[in-house]
Write a structure and sequence with these properties.
Strand order of the largest sheet: 1-4-5-3-2
Distance between the termini: 47 Å
Strand content: 15-25%
CATH architecture of the largest domain: 2-Layer Sandwich
Radius of gyration: 21 Å
Order of helices and strands: HEHEEHEEHEEH
CATH superfamily of the largest domain: Gnk2 domain, C-X8-C-X2-C motif
Shape: elongated
Helix content: 25-40%
Number of strands: 7
């Protein structure tokens, strides 16, 4: 708990607030990956920036109950579209923390770009001046490879293919609140292969399936 004494001098109060803001900024972990779209920029104190600030501060209140957030604010060229998606197997507290970190970190890394996306292990956050919902066009891919090699590539791929096919079908059929599936199967040399797939729930079943298959 932090309590302010009204008798503190103004310069000390200013120092305390600056210190708190600076500490909060430093507390945000680095993204696994992020992307700033340089095709469209905004100027400082513009209507777009004000809409962006309002959008990001309000976005965490729009959770659909299963870790999907979306919000649009503004009109015309000053419209800001935003979404956040948490991994389907994490709890609400972890989800909320990840989204809060993202909405602070991303504008710092992309200070003038109208479109940006940031990836943490537990969530992804994106904002743009373009429509996001039900849009399957992907501008930026992230690949994170496991450095370990399979002992038998053919057996590994033979087990992985059916697992991903089942997960893709289960996730795609997930409904309008969540499109998520995870599972495992036996791999070569008594190993276990784990899989996890997820789409934003605004996508149709066909859109989700096609997107995951293309991955």
């Amino acid at each position: 708990m932090f309590i302010l004494d009204r008798k503190l001098p103004l310069w000390l109060l200013s120092y305390i607030f600056i210190h708190l803001i600076h500490t909060t900024t430093l507390a945000q972990p680095d993204f696994l990956s992020y992307f700033c779209e340089s095709a469209a920029n905004y100027t400082i104190d513009s209507t777009y920036q004000r809409n962006l600030n309002t959008t990001l501060s309000t976005l965490p209140t729009t959770n659909n109950g299963l870790g999907f957030y979306n919000l649009t604010i503004g009109q015309g060229n000053d419209t800001v579209n935003s979404i956040a998606l948490c991994r389907g197997d994490i709890n609400l507290e972890m989800c909320r923390s990840c989204v809060n970190d993202s909405i602070i970190k991303l504008p710092q890394l992309c200070p003038n770009q109208k479109e940006a996306i940031g990836y943490y292990d537990n969530c992804v956050v994106k904002y743009s001046n373009e429509v996001i919902l039900r849009n399957t066009r992907i501008k930026f891919y992230v690949y994170l490879a496991n450095p370990q090699n399979a002992t038998d590539i053919d057996q590994f791929n033979g087990a992985l293919g059916p697992l991903l096919k089942d997960l893709r079908g289960n996730a795609s059929a997930g409904g309008p609140l969540q499109k998520f599936a995870s599972g495992s199967t036996s791999g070569p040399a008594f190993s276990t292969i784990y899989g996890l797939v997820q789409c934003t729930p605004d996508l149709s079943e066909i859109q989700c399936s096609d997107c995951l298959e293309a991955m």
